[in-house]
Here is the input.
Amino acid sequence: MTDVSLRDVASRAGVSFQTVGKVLNGKGTVSTETRERILEAASELGYVPNALARSLVTQSTSTIGIIASDLSDYILARFVVGAEREARGREHGVLIGSLNEKGSDAGRYLRVLLERRVDGILSAAPQLENDVRIGEMLRGSVPTVSLHHVPGGGVPVVGSDHVRTGFLATRHLLELGHRRIATVRGDEDRRVTFSRLKGYRRALEEAGVAFDPDLVEAGGWEPEGGYGATMRLLERAPDITAIFSQNDTMALGVLSALYDRGMSVPDDCAVVGCDDIPLAAHTIPPLTTVHVPFYDTGETAARLLIDMIDGREKEPAPRTLLPVHLVRRVSCGGGPEK
Amino acid sequence: MTDVSLRDVASRAGVSFQTVGKVLNGKGTVSTETRERILEAASELGYVPNALARSLVTQSTSTIGIIASDLSDYILARFVVGAEREARGREHGVLIGSLNEKGSDAGRYLRVLLERRVDGILSAAPQLENDVRIGEMLRGSVPTVSLHHVPGGGVPVVGSDHVRTGFLATRHLLELGHRRIATVRGDEDRRVTFSRLKGYRRALEEAGVAFDPDLVEAGGWEPEGGYGATMRLLERAPDITAIFSQNDTMALGVLSALYDRGMSVPDDCAVVGCDDIPLAAHTIPPLTTVHVPFYDTGETAARLLIDMIDGREKEPAPRTLLPVHLVRRVSCGGGPEK
DNA sequence: AGGTGGAAGGCGAAGGTTCGCCAAAAGAAA
DNA sequence: TTTCTTTTGGCGAACCTTCGCCTTCCACCT
Here is the structure.
């Protein structure tokens, strides 16, 4: 790994290093003869341009930083993959950091990104949505796009329509004739919980079904929580005929609980999830759910961010919501497709 | 984002920029008085050191590059999270790229990493395990550690003991008294498939059960494949009493197939998976599986890589295998714990 | 008084690029 | 032949650090 520089190539080709630069970047005018001599020298020496030096002078690293929650969460990983692909397609590198659960290392990590002079930042860490300090930092640094709310605003958000997600799931159950529809919700400190709940209530209202707070139970996002919430619901309101789980992961627990209670899905109780993670298609029975376009969201966010960096996008929309749609499978009955 | 440099801080504090450098890096000797003046000026101006310029002179970026498969795969994501956490704990940044399925963009991406002068590379893309050209590139550049085989060798590999994985799963079934044990295997072009198959055969052999090629069926890693493979197995060998699925994802399909055939798990057929992905604990019934420490593997790989970069590790072991262990749940019967 | 030594801080170079500008040579027009 | 234009390629500066070395100043010792 003896680094070979423009100078080395130049001395081998018998020209100045600036001329080599011209050839390699296809700028300026150089005779075909010298050009070939230089190209040959470069390939013989195995020249690899030094992006560091370039960035230093151009004041741009062609790198975006992603601040992410735990990447082993499928949903987050999809965001990131979408964003990374888009960024790479646009000749941008991706510097990534996976935060701890509390997000308490976000400040330090953000600083690392700024030291490395990333051209922009993509925030994909919902645990930061109430963090005022981080919001402040994000607003005041490089161009930023977020996949979640940023306290204080000023940072464009790209996401999906969570209200509609809750609405579609609930309306589907209503259309199938259910009237006692329970919901297993996520954490109270997350906005998405309220949005999906709002969609649930809106659908009930439209159908003229009264909202019953007894039918809402916290499930904490994970299967265990879904299991426990279902058991409590069944205890409290044995007359429910359907459950809307505010994500597919909890729905796994919901299904387990119903199974353990000897209830058949969808006959004794219909279940609808949301997110449409891959194994939703492989639960027993396959889960009807609302598809949320995580990959596209990441892609869109990266596109917007890079447009902002390029200066192509001067007035980014403060919110971009991608559409969601219902995916009918078996857990609600009513046939796989309308 | 008007960048403020050492010079700016210096002129505000009335000293030379080199002195500011000394203070900020805690090197040299500077009087307490000037030090404070400098610190104050730096914080007033919001000085953020420029890692680019530093790297240029120190010839080290404190950055590792990760070449990864699709990050939305849980297993890969765990590797990456482990590696990233370890790297960050050791003050290293992570530049990541998620390859396409074929890995055909690996060459280009590798070049990007080299241009950015990463200090080392972590390869986590099994689709490259037969790619001779990439093997060549990896061997001849910066320090590298791989999570999969690299053609031509010369790159230390960190992984888990796949043979033992297959062995433990199969032995468990044998111990429970099964004799007709089928296995749903992964893709033929992947080494892990052969290793797990080898473990399966070894366990059979130790127990004095003859290997029957009819009991091996390809499942292509995904639930659909596991479903199809199970159906074919049931057709061909209706006397099987247990199935070892070479990953948990396919096991989902195995469970669905058995369910659709009206067979009860574990009474009519026991199922054991491997990998221990989170939802293995939440299938119906909960899946007995072999735990594979993906996070630790990533962590270990990053640790080794950074030790190599530091020069702390001169003769890395060509192979480091982390231990795996059986996790008993319900899908094999025999009680949750021994 | 002469000498020694340490603290404080400045200086110059280097690291590998990009970019604007200038000089020399070559070709075209007069 | 002279002059003008174009092509070709060199030059210097800038980007922001780190690092080794040097100077200055002051205190202390003999």
About this structure: The first strand of chain B starts at residue 63 and ends at 68. Residues 15-16, 18-19, 22, 28-31, 34, 53, 55-59 of chain B lie near DNA strand C (CB under 10 Å from a C1'). Residues 266 and 333 of chain B are 6 Å apart (CA to CA).
